[in-house]
Amino acid sequence: MNKSRLTARIASSTLVAAMVFSPVLSEGAFAKVDSNDVKQSDTVSSSINVLGSGDRGEAVTALQSELESLGYYTYHVDGIFGQITEDAVEDFQEDKGLTVDGIAGPEVMGALSATDSRATEPNSDDTPTESVSQSEVVSTAKSLIGTPYVWGGTTPDGFDSSGFIQYVFNEAGVDISRTERDMWKYDGTEVESPAIGDVVFFEGTYDVEGASHSGIYIGDNKIIHAGSGGVEVTDLSYDFWKDHYLGVKSFK
What we know:
Blueprint: H1 3-21, H2 27-30, H3 41-46, H4 58-69, H5 83-95, H6 106-120, H7 134-143, E1 154-155, E2 158-159, H8 161-171, H9 180-186, E3 189-191, E4 199-203, E5 211-219, E6 222-227, E7 230-235, H10 239-244, E8 245-250
Antiparallel strand pairs: 1-2, 3-8, 4-5, 4-8, 5-6, 6-7
């Protein structure tokens, strides 16, 4: 038997074995097995743990379901890794401080697992979330007026919108999530209308699903927030805030 025919038979056997024993392997992974690459079986097996654009199957369905449960994926779960799924993965990567490439590899899977565990972990006792002084929250927030806006900022040297909220409540002894999306989803109690010290949430202020901005209510229909001009007071009667209003949560 000549060398080329032997190589082709080996490649064919490898492909059949992969199809039998790995039913959820993506079409992208199968494309990597050919007569010029049969010796690199590690490339094929590693693809099982990496999902990207064009992949289909049960693994993609599971990924979409996880992202949907966390509020990142808002389309119907169809097992097809398309642009919507890629965008959801990128949003998740950005929130978790991972490399933003839209590919669901081991880092993304690990972070999803950790996030899911955190979200479902019961409280160690039946006591309510620690109370917080309204005056303390407002006083701390007002003391930070004029602090510059810094993307990703979490200190008085510079804040982004969620970093400001997290810092103020941490100073009051309340531990809350880092992003508005997670604050809205996991923290505090949703209320009908704001009281002083509550947090008002907004959506659609930039291209992201779910809560995207927030501010601390200080009364008289005003909030303190970290906007593009820094920490400042703004009036909720402005059309922009009305158009993007999501709801209110109390972190007392």
